[in-house]
Amino acid sequence: MTTQIFGSPITRQEDQRFLTGKGTYVDDIDLPDMLHAAILRSPYAHARINSIDVSQAIELDGVEAVLTYKDLGVAAGPLPLLIPHPALTHPHTQYALAKDTVRYVGEAVAMVVASDRYVAEDAIALIEVDYEPLPVISPADLTDAVAPDTALIYADTPNNIAAHLVQQVGDVDAAFASATHIFHRRVQLDRSSSQPLETRGIVARFDTFEQSLMVWDSTQGPISIRNGLAVLFGLPAEKVRVTSPDVGGGFGGKMMLFYPEEVLVPLMAMRLGRPVKWIEDRLEHMVGSNHERGQVHDISIALDADGCILGLRDIFVHDTGAYCPYGIIVPQITACQLPGPYKLPAYYSDATVAYTNRTPVSPYRGAGRPHGVFAMERILDYAADQLGMDRAEIRFRNMIQPDEFPYDVGLTFQDGLPTRYDSGNYPAGLQRALELIGYERFREEQRQARTQGRYLGIGIGCYVEGTGIGPYEGAYISVDNHGEVHVATGVTTQGQGHQTSFAQIVAAELDIPVEKVHITTGDTQRFRWGIGTFASRAMVVAGNAIGQAAIAVKEKALKVASSILEVAPEDLELIEGRVRVKGAPARGLSLAALSIASNPIRYAYGASAPDLPAVLPAREGPPLPQGEEPGLEATRFFSPPHATFASGVHAAIIEIDIQTGIVKVRKYAVLHDCGKLVNPLIVEGQIYGGVAQGIAGSFYEHMDYDDNGQLLDASFMDFLMPYATEIPHMEVDHIETPSPINPLGVKGAGEAGCIPVAALMAAAVEDALAPFGAKVDHMPLTPDEIRKLAQSQ
Amino acid sequence: MRENNPQEKRLIQLRVNGVRYKQEVETRWLLSDFLRHKLHLTGTHVGCEHGVCGACTIIVNGAPVRSCLMFAVQADGTEILTVEGLAGPDGALHPLQQALHDHHGLQCGFCTPGFLMAIYAFLQDDPDPNMSDDEIREAISGNLCRCTGYQGIVAAVRHVLAQRAAASTQAEASTVVGGESA
Amino acid sequence: MKPPRFAYHDPTTRSEALALLDTYEDEAKLLAGGQSLVPLLNMRLAQPAHLVDINRLPDLADIREEDGYLAIGALTRHRDIERSPLVRRCSPLLAQAVLFVGHAPIRSRGTMGGSLAHADPAAELPTVLQALGGHVCVESRAGSRNIPAEAFFTGPLQTSLTSKELLVEARFPIAPPRTGTAFIEVSRRHGDFALVGLAAQLSLRENGTISAAHLALMGVAETPIRVQQAEAMLLDQHPAEELFNAVAQQVCSDLDPADDLHASAEYRRRVAGVLIGRALQTAAVQTSEVRYA
User: C67 and C149: one domain?
Assistant: First the structure.
């Protein structure tokens, strides 16, 4: 047996091309005759468009076309609404180019296609738009957006409320009536966004000879894009191919159907009969790619005399921006994930989804969980402080115990299915995290530091994360006649190392070196069923489809071998890529030979053909039996019954310079449970990246909108992403509570790193500045705000 | 060609990764765009075009530079090294590339070329191999990564520093063993 | 984000450059290191009709000692200033400050002249020039003149340079023996422009009293400001914590910074006071250290 490949922290197969500058990202694609697009974006947050004059722009040499709404033709309808919901009573999506009203700074108004991007931008500057400004909804207090007397963004949408979603479990009123302690807190998280290093981009080419459309799109979900474009342009799906090439990070913001440009670029490629490329620049990305994180919560908790939760009431407002293309997924996730690892006998969640004149909102890593965790962890910390209880203790007291699974939270998750925790060990996780951070001895360290005028603080954050939602994903595996194994799946890759981790699953099953397994993700020509990579689902759903397909290939290999060697399949084993007779290992056939043999044409060809007997045993019946297919290959799908729930606990020790408000993270520990680990190196990499984004969202990143809906920090100069100097070293340890609802026992890990960070950083700041009575209800914090906290009494 | 939008062109000559190029380029074209779209060296990436993210970092005349903040015409007569020039002619990875691989210092790969060139430049100055992690982080600040949380990158640099320290100790030892003073 | 069109000029002699400035005046922008200008061009926030690239001008990049000054040519790259033993010896304050300028790749191209002429209120090199009471030498077709720091920086991103003038050199008074320096910045990320920062230099007599004090703040006003009142308080005194605290308090109350996205006026005022105390303490300690060439 080869060394255990499943679960092994092997280095990545895909690194070579990235290290040597040979990756193919969408802007690397250079096609003959290619044109370049640029977008004119609204400088107003809310305005009527009275007229657009493109006459000067179109005259500019090098300009091939200038498009406004009236030129959209088949693309003139509103862009799709993803994931409708009964509570989403007033959905609105935008048009590919603004029809008569713009509702956020950055909304696409016109498009230029020209010989190069420089000229395209020259032309953009020549387009004259007559805007008539309208009242702007961009309040500092989000609840003002839905206040009774606020101006309306949409005439048909009272109070700018897109949706009102109420969910409840148990009898919350009774819980509060019988409580010994009731505490309330108002907490807020502010807007940020995914900000991958690679901005969005798309290249489209229409082949008039083939009548087929080829699109390279840095999207997380090419299959949906392909299906959508086929319908939109009236093309057979088989004639539309969408591929995600190498993608430089996604983090949620590249998962849409559609961003305007994803319609406009193919449209123009088809109209002009030339390839068209559009690459988003960073300034566009700041306003033209979706945001997330803005919510304000009023959370109340009812406790008994021992600090055990009797009930929880959470009323919150979610900022969805000017449109809601992604339905109400984010607030739904917030509502369902807020309870976390705690037992809530009664829970009332009331979400109001508010329109604002700001960039639309769709999931950004965490997708609503950071908000829910922030509210829950903050109220628990507050309750603990008020009760004079240790903050870790109140968590232990309220945790779901390891013998209480499956645990039904009683709510409907984003997939429309029950929020039912399948497995986990929350107390053990918390215990381990406390050990890693040195919780026991910290109080003494803190006390000593204070005598030296240094302010250290500790924070912990616990979360449960629903991962691996359906509806399904699939995989196709085939063994070629060199023994190389080719795998295609519909999910995509933006750095998650699928080329390695997916290969490990196959390599483990077929007992072959991982180098012989070649993974293709995100190409509709290679695999055309599925949804995409988001919501921490790729490993669970696609990974299991791949696992099932690999098992099917193995079974077929045994079957074909059985027929040739005339030995029952039970007496055969697949060892080191060869099917051989148990107890007589000299008798066997390689997977390559079996691949050849599985295609019963009269001529066997391929390097391994000589391994096959010169004359195959004669058999009764058709060479290709009924119900069988040629080739050593299989296609399988995996559809999970519901989400599988990962969990974790993070803890950090920070130091605050109270005179400057500057925070230094001295120690950071993660305890993580994502069930079985396919590749610990890759999982840890995902965690580190998530934590970094969480720290960014605690002290740096912040979409700063003014009352006019202008984004004040609209570049990397002012929108601060942390460098290596702002991120600490992180210690990670794992607990594995396998998922009982998928064969591999895995749970998702992509988003985990960022989920509890804002909560625990708020806690740590409070703890460090406890001598000043500091309370933190709002993240991110600036040094100015932290310094002020150290002044209060 | 462009009558009402004339683009002035200049002929420039430069060496990139040891290869001599002679090309016309419009005077406002950024060096990053020239490398990527005229020389088809797409390894250098563009992340922000205002000098903050570092994805476009290359080496010009021995010094690290943001190629998005230079015009191609300014590179006339220069020696440039990009990520495509790091590996050996036989494809053998540079120790820095190998270290990033070994320590999982990359995920989506978009920031990687910029980091490689920035770190390459930093190593040229013969930094103290015993520098602290904080000092390593300072040395690599100036390049953004959104995927890795920097952990693997710091580990890779730590490794390369240790390698260089070991190599120089070995070199010293062998000179001493040789019996002659160096 | 691609630059708008401009007429590109790359003069190879100083007189050519000056002639271009003379002709085009404020229709022209000078391109030196480009680390401040090119982002503005890429964002199309600057749209000059003419771009005068002075990188080919000879004799504009040097570092030398002259008449008690450290003279640094306008085209001298920050990177070369960083590595210069002469700078370390003659102006330890400048040697410290230059390390805070952005990150290494920015320093490879950025120049002394560019930094001074760009005059960002939170920039390091203008602050050092201001602190030390240095001056710049500028030339035009009409002739040349020297402009002392306090007259040079007139507002945020504004200097007293006319559009016909080219900054050719900056001069920093050479530090006397028994000098200690401190350059401190508070910024949100490593390498960012400072929220508040300061440059401090103290020189002592043999009897231990302060013979010269230089103090300038950045990020608290529309230009880097030299805090002469504070310097006066320090002169002839023995370095002491109480003295430094008194100076800090005085300075604090005199400041009138502005609010912005990253920090309030109050923050800047208060933190300026904190930094002064810390900087003076550091500088004082350093005065006893010997400096080598």
Answer: yes
Q: Say yes or no to pLDDT of B16 above 70.
A: yes
Question: Domain B9-85 has what CATH class?
Answer: alpha beta
Assess contact for A654 and A765: CB atoms under 8 A: yes
Distances (CA, A) of A680 to A676, A683, C220: 9, 5, 49
pTM over 0.95: yes
Inter-chain CB proximity C104 and B64 less than 8 Å: yes
Could you say which of 3.40.50.2000, 3.40.980.10, 3.90.1150.10, 3.30.365.10 is the CATH number of the domain covering A291-469+641-789? 3.30.365.10
A662–C1 C-beta distance less than 8 A: no
C264 touches chain A (CB under 8 A): yes
- Which CATH superfamily, name and number, covers A15-134+198-248+255-288? Aldehyde oxidase/xanthine dehydrogenase, a/b hammerhead (3.90.1170.50)
Q: Mutate which of A20, A279, A691 to test chain B, going by most B C-beta atoms within 10 A?
A: A20
Residue, of A607 and C195, whose pLDDT is higher: C195
Count of structural domains within chain C: 3
Fold assignment, B87-172:
DNA polymerase; domain 1 (1.10.150)
Nearest to C35 among B33, B49, B69 (CB): B69
The DSSP code sequence of A448-480 is HHHHTT-EEEEEEEEEEEEE---S-EEEEEEE-
Interchain contact A121–C (C-beta under 8 A): yes
Report how many Cβ contacts below 8 Å link chain A to chain C: 62
DSSP A652-664: EEEEEETTTTEEE
- Single residue among C116, C150, C173 that ends a domain in this structure: C173
Confidence of residue A747 (pLDDT cuts 50, 70, 90): very high
Q: Where does chain A hold its CATH 3.30.365.10 domain(s)? A: 291-469+641-789, 473-638
What is the rounded average pLDDT for all residues in chain A? Answer: 96
Given C128, C147, C173, the domain boundary residue is C173
Could you write out the three-class secondary structure of A226-259?
Answer: HHHHHHHHCCCHHHEEEECCECCCCCCCCCCCCC
Interface test with C, best of A659, A720, A785 (most C CBs within 10 A): A659
CB contact under 8 A, C267 and A283: no
Give the span between the Cα atoms of A245 and A26, in whole angstroms: 6
C-alpha dihedral, A362 to A365 to A370 to A372, nearest 10° = 50
Tell me which chain B residues have a C-beta less than 8 angstroms from the C-beta of A16. Answer: 101
Q: Are residues C169 and C116 part of one domain? A: yes
In a domain, residue C293? The reply is: no
Give me the pLDDT at residue B177, please. Answer: 53
Q: Which residues of A touch B144 (CB under 8 A)?
A: 197, 716, 721, 723
Is A782 in CB contact (< 8 Å) with chain C?
Answer: yes
Portion 131-160 of B in contact with A at CB < 8 A: 133-134, 136-138, 140-154
Q: Which residues of C touch B63 (CB under 8 A)?
A: 79, 105, 108
- The reply to whether A266 touches chain C by the CB within 8 Å rule is no
Q: Could you tell me the CATH number of the domain that includes residue C188?
A: 3.30.390.50
User: Is A123 in contact with A352 (CB distance < 8 Å)?
Assistant: no
Q: Can you list the positions of beta strands (E) in chain B?
A: 9-16, 19-26, 57-60, 63-66, 79-81
Per-residue pLDDT averaged across A365-390, rounded?
Answer: 97
Calculate mean pLDDT across residues C221-241.
95
Query: CB distance A251–B41 less than 8 Å?
Result: no
